[in-house]
Automatic annotation (TrEMBL):
Highest taxon of source: Bacteria
Protein name in the entry: OoxA
Keyword Oxidoreductase: yes
Key words, A-Z: Oxidoreductase
Gene3D superfamilies membership: BFD-like [2Fe-2S]-binding domain, FAD/NAD(P)-binding domain
Domain FAD/NAD(P)-binding: 5-327
GO molecular function terms listed in the Swiss-Prot or TrEMBL record: oxidoreductase activity
PANTHER family listed in its UniProt record: ANAEROBIC GLYCEROL-3-PHOSPHATE DEHYDROGENASE SUBUNIT B (PTHR42949)
Organism: Desulforapulum autotrophicum (strain ATCC 43914 / DSM 3382 / VKM B-1955 / HRM2) (Desulfobacterium autotrophicum)
Gene from which this protein is expressed: ooxA
UniProt domain BFD-like [2Fe-2S]-binding: residue ranges: 398-448
A Pfam family recorded for this sequence: Fer2_BFD
SUPFAM superfamilies registered for this protein in UniProt: FAD/NAD(P)-binding domain
Length: 479
């Protein structure tokens, strides 16, 4: 790894990879950094399990495009690509602190070390993670996020359990059910907080995105044919078990998310996979000093960008899920756009001449990007849990798992006036543990806004400090 690059891209998901491919052949030194061993971000995790019994379902062909991208970049000159390397912090003048767990360029001696590297232009494409709604028993072994269940299958080749209950509001629920069935697992049921009426209301709004509608229809048909019980307008309110999860208590809710008393039911299963949409990974942009803006319809706090996808910090760009949750297609489009924008700034291409291909390419991409963002707004609305659900979490429920802070403590402190992210953290230590608020941060923001009526801008967002990821002290001791 060199110490200076023309462009550094953090994140080898769809956004980062598309940007890298667009730079190829332009005579620039490019570095891509990703903490995962496999490239392709959340969508293209390597599949090590036995071939699925079901055909690969991808009417929009995004996965195929992603695998083709990876192959294309591998063949290109001038692109250094390190996997299993975490960016721990960003300092002034786009200097990055990188923990290299493994270096895949032969002859390099960086493995296990911390390295500093600087970019003329920095592209942040750090993606998203899942959003949680805590409930009694959610810390029991066997209760996991939808993404964790996917990773178990895709990266480790094991099913989450023999019989898995799937719940939440996320479109990933159907994807996971499809994958479990395709790998000879059983799905105990699908507990969907959205009612069928609410979902159908979205169909006319997204009618132009037929590949996604086809995908949804095929998933639904598969659930029906497999005899998977589907509970609509229903939520998990408790996970039960002695030493691990054995059953969930589910209950019907009103459209406002309020539990309807007397509708509780017990669902036995060996594991519970649950998720409520996604939140952008904004820790590195925060460190870089990028301004944020809050949009509930985009997944919460996102990086503010201009038309060139540049953040408020000069030459620091943000693309993909961190500018608003919208799926792989938008990440793909923004990756292309940001590279064209940087190439134009460097004088490598001319975007201003109306007669050249780049100009028309950019116009098309901008239009597609807007269209994709519009579609995503509806999807994010489907994933949203009504705020009242956060305000009514029972007192004994664990909120900050790392520091073991319960809802009762959080509620008491908010009522005493600690009603911003910063003050509540100082008063209770919530968000100060190993995950540094990545799991509880968005939950606490929703709890404060639900209990106080304050706006997210008044409540703030979780502070991000170096190192943003856990790293052993030995890495710092052996430079
Ligand atoms: C858990 C999960 C599962 C998903 N499963 C599906 C699915 O099955 N089907 C589907 O259509 N969509 C799925 N999605 C959505 C899909 O991943 C996104 O729409 C799309 O891939 C976003 O692309 P991206 O490039 O913006 O981000 P991502 O694909 O998330 O890529 C971001 C990359 O940045 C890297 N990164 C982040 N921080 C650092 C750091 N500090 N240092 C180094 N690297 C870093 C990550 O390792 C990751 O590879 C899933 C999303 C999540 C969060």
């Amino acid at each position: 790894m060199k110490t200076h690059y023309h462009v550094i891209i953090v994140g080898a998901g769809f956004a980062g990879l598309t940007a890298a491919e667009t730079f190829a052949g332009q005579g620039l030194d490019i570095l891509i950094i990703d903490e995962n061993a496999q490239s392709g971000g959340q969508l293209l995790r390597k599949t090590r399990h036995r071939p699925s019994l079901l055909p690969r379902l991808e009417p929009d062909r995004m996965k195929s495009k992603g695998f083709a991208l990876i192959e294309s970049i591998k063949k290109r000159q001038g692109i250094d690509w390190i996997t299993q390397a975490q960016v721990l912090g960003i300092f002034k003048e786009r200097r990055l602190l990188v923990h290299v767990e493994n270096h895949n360029t032969p002859g390099e001696k960086d493995a296990g070390k911390i390295r500093e590297v600087q970019a003329d232009h920095l592209i942040l494409a750090t993606g998203a993670r899942e959003r949680y709604l805590p409930f009694k028993g959610w810390t029991l072994p066997g209760v996991m996020s939808l993404g964790a269940a996917q990773i178990l299958m895709k990266s480790h080749g094991v099913l989450p359990a023999r019989n898995t209950l799937i719940a939440g509001t996320s479109p990933l629920m159907m994807v996971l059910a499809w994958e479990i069935l395709g790998n000879r697992g059983r799905v105990a049921g699908l507990v969907d907080q959205n009612s069928m009426k609410k979902k159908l209301a979205f169909v006319p709004l997204v009618k132009d995105h037929w590949p996604k509608l086809v995908e949804g229809a095929l998933y639904t048909a598969r659930m029906i044919l497999s005899g998977v019980p589907v509970h609509q307008g229903t939520r998990v309110i408790e996970a039960r078990g002695e030493n691990g999860f054995t059953s969930a208590i589910i209950a019907k809710t009103t459209p406002e998310g309020v539990i309807i008393p007397g509708t509780e039911k017990q669902c036995p299963a060996d594991a519970l996979a649950i998720g409520h949409g996604f939140v952008p990974n904004i820790e590195l942009p925060v460190q870089a000093g990028c301004e944020l803006e809050y949009h509930r319809d985009k997944g919460g706090w996102v990086v503010r960008i201009n038309q060139k996808l540049e953040s408020s910090v000069r030459s620091v760009y943000a693309v993909g899920e961190i500018t608003g949750i919208a799926g792989a297609k938008k990440s793909f489009i923004q990756g292309r756009l940001v590279a064209l924008s940087i190439l134009s700034r460097l004088g490598k291409i001319n975007l201003n001449s109306r007669t050249n291909d780049f100009h028309h390419g950019v116009e098309t991409l901008v239009a597609l990007n807007l269209e994709q963002e519009k579609y995503a707004r509806f999807l994010n609305q489907l994933c949203q849990v009504p705020l009242s659900a956060y305000g009514t979490i029972p007192d004994e429920t664990m909120i900050c798992r790392c520091e073991e802070i319960t809802m009762g403590t959080i509620r008491k402190n908010i009522h005493q006036g600690f009603d911003t992210m910063g003050s509540l953290k100082k008063a209770t230590r919530c968000g100060m543990g190993r995950c540094q608020g990545r799991i509880c941060g968005p939950v606490i923001l929703d709890i404060i806004t639900a209990l106080t009526g304050k706006s997210p801008a008044q409540v703030g967002c979780t502070l991000s400090r170096v190192p943003v990821k856990n790293v052993g002290i030995s890495a710092f001791l052996n430079p």
